[in-house]
Specification:
This is RPC5 polymerase. Pfam families: RPC5, RPC5_C. It comes from Cinclus mexicanus (American dipper). InterPro entries: RNA_pol_III_Rpc5 (IPR006886), RPC5_C (IPR045576). This protein is α+β, with helices and mostly antiparallel strands. Among the domains are: 118 residues; 165 residues, no CATH class; 142 residues, no CATH class. Helix content is 45%, strand content 12%. A six-stranded mixed sheet has the order 2-8-5-4-3-9, with no helix packed on it. Strands 1-7-6 form a three-stranded mixed sheet, with no helix packed on it. Helix 11 crosses helix 13 and helix 26 crosses helix 27. The longest helix is centred in the C-terminal third of the chain and has 40 residues. The relative contact order is 0.04.
Length: 691
């Protein structure tokens, strides 16, 4: 008490916190200047900064007229650095060391305890410092002088013999192929000193403008060191409770802090969590738990938390799935990250996880193989997605881990509707990215979801199976009786129609009717190319009634003739495809639906003036037998008949012919000197269906 009476309070000073230069104010610590550089005559020639590294480089002029400046030494340094010639790249254009470069380094890693103070009219204004930089002279000009010296020595030691120069130019080069970089190797490379130096060098310099002490701009900037508002409401950082103020005056000792058990860096206690803003609390909880009912989330945030504010914040970091909140994919996989399993970028992972979440909005069960087939991601990534929000069930798939939250859906229909609109937008994006089919978009039929799973005993399952067997047995019995009656009626009609059947006399062929199974979708519901309702021309034992043979021949000949007049060269496979397309365009009951075999089609091709070209395909070819049979119209009656016959003769000798050989052969046989464009036109007209 006696000491306090001897040291009375003389004056109370108001302290204000200025924010105008927050994160912009730096403190530069200059070295002790030589006598030739006084405070009044120092001139900043240039200044530049790298903001991320907090690195500054200043170029300051030296007073060469000062009596303390050694002129001979300055000339010697300039000569060593730039040599005798001066150009734009010279460091000292005046042939005299007239400037000095200073580079910065951080004086303290933590500058939160430091501030710049200005006292004015009984008020103390504080501005926190963003960095404290110590400026030291840079001697890079000495490196430049050494480089010049080495160049001069190399030039003097170089031989005059051209033979030696030629031998020096010949160097052995070793070629190496780099192996794929593993994840561990990439992490080591990123943490290496060389990589960090390269990253620092890649940052661009930001050039600054220097204003003197008495400049009007400097006076304007100095005004920002004063607090703009003097009300206490704007200086809440300086208003502390007694306990907080006491803690600031007497912080806990380092020993007490070391005695506390160290928790992992990714673990937050509930006490630490509740000191954060509400949005950050919800984000951390959802990121760790991944799936959570709204009631559980409220209980973790503590009593007194506003549910409306929680709803507003949770929609920013989570999506509603079956009445529960599931953390968003971009929260788990931030931008510029990748998968630890496959190295896939975060954007692809987010799309795949969104697809899994969307599938759970459609059904409680998801099959892992289906997800992998659609997303094309590795099994480990897909497994991570499913483990976030579901539980594996043997022989069933993956079931959503939480029951359907009916209470939340009933209490908050507006939130549910808004989330449904969000899911519609996500579904539209997934459809474009993955080209989803209808089977993926249509949800499976399922029972009404309830909070309590339905339990079925073994006896009930047996009874249900017996009832299903009885029901299926009755349906199968009815179908069998119906088929039996139809077979009897068909046998009776066949016996009455046999005397009127006329059998066509032709040699027996082992070839089966032409296969149209690959094009059965083009037959408009036909069975083997024939409408079941048409009974007047039904073949019996593979043969047609006598009155239909001529009409079938005429129709088939007309089709073959018109086809080869449009496309002069066709393989049997292509001809069969065109014939099936022709059948699909015909009305029901047409004569060609009576059944056309491969042999009938090939015979008709030869009857219409076409020839088979025996192209010598290589024996290891992967083409089918029908693709190896080539037919061509020998005479079409146009100007290209002779050219076409020459080409066919060439291809009957070799399956691959060079263009210059074709051009020479056409010129010899046809007596015309054809250029490249004319040869291309002949090839296009003659082989339009093949080339």
């Amino acid at each position: 008490m006696a000491n306090e009476e001897d040291d009375p309070i003389i004056q109370e000073i108001d302290v204000f916190l200025a924010r105008s230069l927050l994160e912009k104010l730096y403190l530069f610590q200059y070295p002790i200047r030589p006598a030739s550089m006084t405070y009044d005559d120092v001139t900043h020639l240039s200044a530049k900064i790298k903001p991320k590294q907090q690195k500054v480089e200043l170029e300051m002029a030296i007073d060469t007229l000062n009596p303390n400046y050694c002129r001979s030494k300055g000339e010697q340094i300039a000569l060593n650095v730039d040599g005798t010639c001066t150009d734009e790249t010279s460091t000292y254009s005046s042939k005299l060391m007239d400037k000095q470069t200073f580079c910065s380094s951080q004086a303290a890693s933590n500058v939160s305890r430091y501030a710049a103070a200005v006292y004015k009219k009984g008020e103390l204004h504080l501005t926190p410092l963003h960095g404290i930089l110590q400026l030291r002279p840079s001697f890079t000009y000495l490196d430049k002088a050494d480089a010049k010296h080495r160049e001069r020595e190399a030039a003097n030691e170089g031989g005059d013999s051209s033979q030696d120069e030629a031998e020096d130019d010949v160097k052995q080069i070793t070629v190496r192929f780099s192996r794929p970089e593993t994840e561990q190797a990439r992490q080591r490379r990123v943490q290496s000193y060389e990589f960090l130096q390269k990253r620092q060098a890649e940052e661009h310099w930001v050039h600054l403008h220097y204003y003197g002490l008495k400049d009007s701009r400097s006076e304007h900037e100095r005004q920002y060191l004063f607090s703009q508002g003097h009300s206490l409401a704007e200086n809440t950082e300086l208003i502390k409770s007694p306990s907080e103020y006491l803690m600031m005056l007497m912080p806990p000792s380092v020993e007490e802090e070391n005695d506390k058990p160290m928790a992992p860096s990714n673990v937050l206690s509930m006490a630490q969590l509740r000191t954060l803003p509400l949005a950050d609390q919800i984000k951390i909880l959802m990121k760790n738990v991944k799936v959570m009912p709204f009631a559980n989330l409220l209980s973790l945030l503590g009593s007194g938390t506003d549910p409306t504010a929680v709803l507003r914040c949770v929609q920013q970091v989570a999506l509603l799935v079956q009445g529960n909140w599931v953390v968003k994919s971009d929260v788990l996989y931030p931008k510029d990250t990748s998968s630890p399993h496959s190295g896939v970028p975060a954007e692809v992972l987010c799309r795949g996880r969104d697809f899994v979440m969307w599938k759970f909005t459609q059904d409680r069960w998801v099959v892992r193989k289906e997800v992998a087939a659609v997303t094309k991601l590795c099994p480990e990534d897909v497994k991570d997605f499913l483990e976030h929000m579901s539980v594996a069930r043997i022989n069933k798939g993956w079931e959503f881990m939480l029951p359907y939250d009916e209470d939340f859906v009933k209490k908050h229909p507006d939130i549910v509707q808004r989330q449904q609109m969000l899911w519609m937008g996500i579904q539209a994006k997934l459809e474009k990215v993955y080209n989803l089919l209808k089977e993926h978009l249509t949800p499976k039929k399922q029972e009404v979801q309830s909070a309590h799973p339905l339990l079925v005993s073994g006896e009930q399952r047996v009874n249900m199976a017996k009832a299903k067997v009885k029901q299926n047995y009755g349906q199968l019995e009815k179908e069998f009786q119906k088929q039996k009656a139809e077979m009897k009626s068909n046998d009776t009609s066949a016996k009455t129609d046999v005397p009127n059947i006329r059998i066509k006399e032709e040699p027996v062929s082992v070839e089966e009717p032409m296969d149209t199974s690959a094009h059965e979708g083009l037959n408009n519901g036909l069975v083997n190319g024939l409408h079941p309702a048409q009974g007047s021309m039904d073949p019996v034992n593979g043969h047609l009634p006598g009155g239909c043979i001529d009409r079938v021949t005429q129709e088939l000949k007309a089709f073959v003739s018109s086809t080869f007049k449009k496309q002069f060269v066709l393989t049997l496979s292509e001809l069969k495809r065109l014939f099936n397309l022709h059948l699909a365009s015909l009305p029901p009951g047409h004569t060609l639906f009576s059944g056309i075999s491969d042999k009938m089609l090939q015979d008709m091709v030869l009857d219409t003036g076409c020839k088979q070209i025996l192209v010598p395909f290589p024996p290891q070819t992967a083409a089918s037998p029908d693709e190896l049979k080539v037919y061509a119209l020998w005479e079409a009656g146009d100007t290209y008949d002779q050219h076409r016959q020459v080409l066919l003769e060439l291809f009957s000798k070799n399956y691959r012919v060079r263009r210059n050989v074709i051009q020479n052969q056409l010129s010899q046989e046809c007596g015309e000197d054809l250029n490249k464009q004319e040869v291309d036109r002949v090839l296009k007209v003659s082989f339009c269906s093949l080339w």
